[in-house]
Design goal:
The protein has two helices and four strands; from the N terminus they run ββαββα. With about 90 residues, the protein is an alpha+beta fold. It has one domain (about 5-85). The strands form two sheets. The protein has a two-stranded antiparallel sheet. A two-stranded antiparallel sheet has the order 3-4. The protein is elongated, with a radius of gyration of 14 Å. The two termini are about 20 Å apart.
Length: about 90
């Protein structure tokens, strides 16, 4: 299970999308999903990259890490986003 952060007033919940967590949260409130990143294949470098889509946090910037497989990029993306949530950067 992933990391989840609930605001002090209980009205805001932030987590990396997971179908189980979404189902739990939906029982208690309306869920609004915002895409935080885009994992894409860069034909020039022949590597998978992660582009930040969060408004106000490195919006439009690609992370410097590159990956040979899509799954490696997705695994990194999840860990990276959970760290941002854990440290209150998003």
């Amino acid at each position: 299970m992933g990391f989840i952060r609930i605001s002090p007033d209980g009205k805001g919940v932030v987590f990396v999308h997971d179908d189980f967590l979404k189902a739990v949260v939906e029982r208690h409130c309306v869920v609004k999903i915002n895409r935080a990143t885009d994992v894409f294949y860069d034909n020039t470098s022949k590597m998978w990259k992660i582009k930040m889509l969060l408004r106000g946090y490195m919006h439009g910037v690609c992370l410097p890490e590159e990956f040979t497989t899509r799954q490696d990029a997705i695994d990194y993306e999840k860990a990276y986003l959970e760290d941002l949530i854990r440290t209150h950067k998003i």
